C-alpha cells in the first residue's frame, strides 16, 4: 500500500470517518505488519499522543492477525515507519534502528512556527501590486485582453476570451514569498504550481509563434497542448521547450544548477550559454550547472522530486545543509550552523507539521540538536 494511502486511512480512523472499505483495507495492511505490542507502544510514546488510536488499531490487528513470513526486512521497516507518520502529528521518519531506543529530543522553543500556506503577490504590468492573501475570490482585474480571477479554492486564473487588439506582450509577475506556495492557470490553460521563494513572469495573453515565461525558483507545469505555439520556460542559463507535457523546473539563485524533471511527454532542454541541448523522456532529470556548458541527464525518483507539490519533504541520505535549505524556505526561518562534522539522514515528513515537531523528529534520527529563537534555527552536533 502506498504511504499516502496509509496516511489517509489512519487519519480517517482518528477522525471516525472510516467506511467499511477503509476498515477492510486497513485491516489487511495490519496483517502485514507482524509488529509486537511493545514496538507499537514505543512509537506512540515517541510521538507523545494517539494512545487511544493505537489501542483501537492494535486490537483490530490482533483479532485478525495471521502468521505470514516476510523475508524482506525493508518492507517491515517501511510499514513500521509509516505508523510514525500519523503518531507524530503527520511526521514520517522511515530510517530508524528499531532495535535501539530512540533518543529524547531537546528543542528549545521560543514560539511556535506554523508551516507555509497559500501566499502570493501579483504585480500587474503598470507596477500595481495585489496581495492575493487579502483578495476575496472573484474578479481581480483585467489586463490586455485577459480577465483575472481568484477562484474559490484560492488559485489565480486568466480568461483570454476577452477581445483585444493588443499586439505587444504585456506581462504580469506572480511572486511567492518564503513560507508560501500558489497555483495559477495561465491564459492558454497551462496550469502552474509554484513553490516557496519563487517568481514567475508571464504574458497576460500569448501571441506570435511561442509561449514564453520566465522562472526563478521552483514550479511544476502542466502545459496545455498547442503544436503551433511551443511553450518555453526560461530559468537563468536554461531554456525548456515543450508542446504539451508535465514537468518540474527547480532553479533558485543559491542552487548550484537548474534541475528539470519530466513526468509526461517530452521536453527539450537547452543551455542558453553554449547552445547544447538534450531531449528528456519521462523519469529523466537534466541538470544545467552554473558556469558550465554541459547538460547532465539521469533517471530520478519522481515521487521525491514532486514531494513538495504533494505536501511532503522526502530526503534520501541528504546533507543537513541541503535539508535545512528547504525547511528554511517553507517555514520562512534563517538557519545557522555550529557543526564539527557533516550529518546526513533521510525520511519522509509532512509539510503541514509544526516546525518544532519537525525538528524533534530530525533530532530523533540524527546526532544533531536544533535550537529555535524566533525565526532563527541553530543546528549543532
From TrEMBL:
The keyword Membrane applies. Residues 312-379 form the Protein FecR C-terminal domain. InterPro entries: FecR (IPR006860), FecR_C (IPR032508), Ferrdict_sens_TM (IPR012373). Pfam families: FecR (PF04773), FecR_C (PF16344). Keywords: Membrane, Transmembrane, Transmembrane helix. Gene3D superfamilies: 2.60.120.1440, 3.55.50.30. The chain crosses the membrane at residues 74-93. Residues 174-268 form the FecR protein domain. GO terms for molecular function: sigma factor antagonist activity. Signal peptide: none annotated. This is FecR family protein.
Amino acid at each position: 500500500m502506498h504511504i499516502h494511502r496509509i496516511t489517509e486511512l489512519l487519519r480517517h480512523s482518528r477522525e471516525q470517518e472510516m467506511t467499511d472499505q477503509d476498515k477492510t483495507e486497513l485491516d489487511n495492511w495490519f496483517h502485514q505488519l507482524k509488529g509486537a505490542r511493545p514496538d507499537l507502544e514505543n512509537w506512540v510514546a515517541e510521538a507523545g499522543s494517539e494512545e487511544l488510536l493505537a489501542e483501537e488499531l492494535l486490537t483490530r490487528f490482533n483479532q485478525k492477525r495471521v502468521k505470514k513470513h516476510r523475508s524482506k526486512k525493508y518492507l517491515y521497516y517501511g510499514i513500521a515507519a509509516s505508523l510514525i507518520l500519523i503518531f507524530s502529528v503527520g511526521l514520517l521518519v522511515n530510517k530508524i534502528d528499531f532495535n535501539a531506543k530512540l533518543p529524547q529530543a531537546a528543542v528549545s522553543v521560543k514560539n511556535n512556527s506554523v508551516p507555509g500556506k497559500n501566499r502570493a503577490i501579483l504585480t500587474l504590468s503598470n507596477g500595481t501590486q495585489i496581495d492575493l492573501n487579502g483578495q476575496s475570490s472573484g474578479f481581480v482585474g483585467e489586463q490586455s485582453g485577459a480577465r483575472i480571477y481568484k477562484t474559490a479554492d484560492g488559485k489565480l486564473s486568466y480568461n483570454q476570451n476577452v477581445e483585444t487588439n493588443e499586439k505587444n506582450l504585456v506581462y504580469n509577475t506572480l511572486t511567492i514569498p518564503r513560507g508560501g506556495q500558489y497555483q495559477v492557470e495561465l491564459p492558454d490553460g497551462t496550469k502552474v504550481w509554484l513553490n516557496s521563494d519563487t517568481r514567475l513572469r508571464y504574458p497576460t495573453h500569448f501571441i506570435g509563434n511561442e509561449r514564453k515565461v520566465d522562472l526563478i525558483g521552483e514550479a511544476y507545469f502542466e502545459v496545455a497542448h498547442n503544436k503551433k505555439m511551443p511553450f518555453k520556460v526560461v530559468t537563468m542559463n536554461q531554456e525548456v521547450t515543450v508542446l504539451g507535457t508535465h514537468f518540474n523546473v527547480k532553479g533558485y539563485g543559491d542552487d548550484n544548477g537548474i534541475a528539470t524533471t519530466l513526468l509526461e511527454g517530452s521536453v527539450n532542454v537547452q543551455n542558453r550559454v553554449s547552445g547544447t541541448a538534450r531531449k528528456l523522456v519521462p523519469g529523466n532529470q537534466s541538470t544545467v550547472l552554473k558556469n558550465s556548458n554541459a547538460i547532465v541527464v539521469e533517471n530520478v525518483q519522481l515521487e521525491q522530486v514532486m514531494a513538495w507539490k504533494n505536501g511532503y519533504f522526502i530526503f534520501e541520505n541528504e546533507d543537513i545543509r541541503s535539508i535545512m535549505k528547504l525547511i528554511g524556505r517553507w517555514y520562512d526561518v534563517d538557519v545557522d550552523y555550529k557543526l564539527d562534522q557533516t550529518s546526513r539522514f533521510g525520511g519522509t515528513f509532512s509539510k503541514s507539521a509544526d516546525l518544532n515537531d519537525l525538528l524533534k523528529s530530525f533530532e530523533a534520527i540524527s546526532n544533531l540538536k536544533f535550537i529555535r529563537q524566533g525565526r532563527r534555527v541553530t543546528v549543532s552536533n
